[in-house]
Amino acid sequence: MRIGVLTGGGDCPGLNAVIRAVVRKGVKEYGYEFVGFRDGWKGPLEGLTMPLDLTTTRGILPRGGTILGSSRTNPFKIENGVERIKENLAKMNIDALVAIGGEDTLGVATKLDSLGVKVVGVPKTIDNDLNNTDYTFGFDTSVNIAVEAIDRLHTTAESHHRALIVEVMGRHAGWIALHAGIAGGASCILIPEVKFSVDKVCEWVNSRFESSYAPIIVIAEGAIPQDGDMVVKDQTLDSFGHVKLSGIGEWLAGQIEEKTGKEARTSVLGHIQRGGSPTAFDRVLATRFGLHAITAIHEGDFGKMVALHGTKIERVPLASATTQLKLVTPDLYAEAEVFFG
Ligand code: F6P
């Protein structure tokens, strides 16, 4: 069998660990050949490949990013995109694909599966918002990066008696903000799922200052004020219809200064959260996902995504992961709220 592998969407730590595991088990246990498709769905669409074997996948386990490259190419938005992918796969004698990605990349995989392309998905995203898996790989690393930043911001905020706002990624789901905020002892955590009141945030800021302590506010880039809109960088849409976010932290700092008279500054963590070496947890999860994905291919169980349920890796229908997002639930947010103010 010849198997194609691709990584799509925003990159995240652990992608190389998946690629390595897929290839290592595929070659050693099943005698498969591999083709690396470059830059997400652009690879099979344009026939862009690179060699993928035991040699090219050596030493990549701890490396961030993806040796295959990534893009947000959506073949369903390109004329004859699906036909071109099917033609290229046939030309290259590719029997099946391992698609490693988040809601967009696996959303494409779901549709291609229904059109006869043999594909197995692996859930990737720092946002942890893919449905039907307890965790995606990459999330743990980004949370740890954010927690380290929060720990550092605590000490400088205290020295200068300032409020410090930490803006983290999370377009629709506040998982990074929730986990980093709880672990970092934030004075409040603002997530896309729950519209926030600026007055309430100012109350928490004041009460934190009253206890001689500088407040740290963790805010997801997609958080929305009760009396306002999502803050976007500009209005351009990518091929999956997403705008570029960022700016809500800066906006909130202005509001806090105006309403409390205290100095407020913002740190936007941005792509730092997506770069660098994966944590041990993500390396293990990514490796296990890779091993189970190639076994699913070997057993002909296509149209599935490997998923973490408890400590077990199981297979779920691709569509069950991509038709709705996994959002922070009110009970989890209530646990964090105990520490606000
Ligand atoms: O989907 C992962 C993610 O990191 C989001 O949290 C963020 O909104 C987006 O990607 C940023 O994407 P880009 O790097 O393409 O600007």
Provide an overview of this structure.
The strands form 3 sheets. A 7-stranded mixed β-sheet has the order 3-2-1-4-5-12-13, sandwiched between helices. Strands 7-8-6-11 form a 4-stranded parallel β-sheet, sandwiched between helices. It has a two-stranded antiparallel sheet with strand order 9-10. The longest helix is centred in the middle third of the chain and has 22 residues, at about 140-160. The model has no long low-confidence stretch (mean pLDDT about 95). About 40% of the residues lie in helices and about 20% in strands. The chain has helices spanning about 15-30, 40-45, 80-90, 105-115, 140-160, 175-185, 200-210, 250-260, 280-300, 320, 330-335; strands spanning about 1-5, 35, 50, 95-100, 120-125, 165-170, 190, 215-220, 230-235, 245, 265-270, 305-310, 310-315. It has 2 domains: about 1-135 and about 280-320, Rossmann fold; about 140-275, Phosphofructokinase domain (Rossmann fold, 3-Layer(aba) Sandwich). It has about 350 residues and is of the alpha/beta class. It is elongated. 6-O-phosphono-beta-D-fructofuranose binds near residues 127, 221, 244 and 245. 6-O-phosphono-beta-D-fructofuranose (F6P) binds near residues 126, 169, 171, 221 and 274.
List the SSEs and their pairings.
Layout: E1 2-7, H1 15-30, E2 33-37, H2 42-46, E3 49-52, H3 81-91, E4 96-101, H4 103-114, E5 119-123, H5 139-160, E6 163-168, H6 175-183, E7 188-190, H7 198-210, E8 216-220, E9 232-237, E10 243-245, H8 248-260, E11 264-268, H9 280-298, E12 304-309, E13 312-317, H10 318-322, H11 330-337
Parallel strand pairs: 1-2, 1-4, 4-5, 5-12, 6-8, 6-11, 7-8
Antiparallel strand pairs: 2-3, 9-10, 12-13
Helix pairs in contact: 1-9, 5-6, 7-8
